[in-house]
Design a protein that fits this description.
Number of domains: 2
CATH architecture of the largest domain: 2-Layer Sandwich
Largest sheet: 5 strands, parallel
CATH superfamily of the largest domain: Histidine kinase-like ATPase, C-terminal domain
CATH topology of the largest domain: Heat Shock Protein 90
Number of helices: 12
Structural class: alpha/beta
Distance between the termini: 27 Å
Order of helices and strands: EHEHEHEHEHEHHHHHEEHHEE
Strand order of the largest sheet: 2-1-3-4-5
């Protein structure tokens, strides 16, 4: 049976603070870092930001009831095991939840023994660490994605969970921030040719969605794609992320040559590149400026 380790991050979603506290108390000393949320909106934000290893949620929340909770969670983070719990859920709802993808069902109030056993079963469903598989020298992942920026959070959650789940929490946050900046840059600035000032004006005037829809409707832009390539090199003990757009590129040489202090306001979109490079100094572009690569050490 797998043991619980300090790499296990648990998100508890329940409107009752007593239930949140009781679960956290039951898991003390069992190798879990527990984060709690009282409603679905807060929970989805936590999932997008922290990429928990396992989620436990009540089936009945203030903003959503029944199977809606599970569907939202699985849509955002398909690979994350979700344990559902409720005090008086009807049997057909429980069966449907398991069919949709719930890893387990717990009847409230949940005992410590039931909780630990359910978490052990859920942990067996988590993606394994390539470092634990003998003989693997290199693994690669390739995604080809469209140019809709609203899809970026789900892309990043998948990438973090699938390729970087063994990184320390702070390092995962750094990687999430860097990937977010680089993907938005590739899609908005690269494929859709939206400059920083144009985006800021649209946001201020409440017409950002209209701006996106207009660009995505243009024949020369709508079919552009972004390629995301990830290589896990077990010999070098590192992850290498590559993001390539189909835009014109940009003059990154002068941008990276300047310090962050002298970054002019009209070039504020370049601050995202500065942020990513501050976390990952290995960040580099190809000559054209439409392909960026960063290396993450696993040491």
């Amino acid at each position: 049976m797998n043991t619980l380790t300090t790499s296990d991050h648990l998100l508890v979603i329940d409107p009752c603070s007593d239930t949140q506290a009781r679960i956290a108390e039951q898991l003390q000393g069992r190798g879990f870092s527990v984060v709690a949320a009282s409603d679905l909106t807060t929970a989805l934000t936590a999932i997008d930001m922290a990429a928990p290893d396992i989620v436990i949620t009540d089936l009945f929340l203030p903003e959503a009831t029944g199977l809606t909770v599970l569907k939202e969670l699985k849509a955002r983070h398909e690979l994350c095991p979700v344990i559902v719990m409720a005090k008086d859920a009807p049997e057909p709802m429980i069966i449907q939840a398991l069919r949709i993808g719930a890893a387990d069902y717990l009847h409230k109030p949940v005992t410590e023994e039931e909780l630990v056993l359910a978490l052990q079963r859920a942990r067996n469903l988590m993606p394994g660490d390539l470092g634990d598989i003998p003989g693997v020298c290199r693994a690669e992942y390739q995604l080809t994605v469209d140019s809709d920026p609203t899809h970026i959070p789900a892309m990043i959650s998948w990438l973090i969970k699938t390729t970087a789940s063994t990184l320390p929490p702070v390092r995962r946050l750094h990687l999430r921030g860097a990937l977010q900046e680089l993907l938005f840059n590739a899609i908005e600035h690269g494929n859709l040719e939206i400059v920083y000032r144009e985006k800021q004006e649209a946001l201020a005037e409440g017409r950002y969605e209209q701006l996106l829809a207009h660009r995505l409707a243009q024949a020369r832009l709508r079919d552009r794609r972004v390629r995301i390539h990830v290589a896990h090199d077990t010999d070098a003990n590192c992850l290498v992320y590559g993001i390539t757009d189909e835009g014109k590129g940009f003059k990154w040489q002068s941008l990276l040559a300047r310090s962050q202090e002298v970054c002019e306001s009209e070039d504020a979109n370049g601050r995202g590149v500065f942020l990513a490079r501050s976390f990952f100094p290995s960040l580099r572009y190809n000559d054209r400026g439409n392909e960026v690569t960063l290396t993450v050490s696993l040491h």
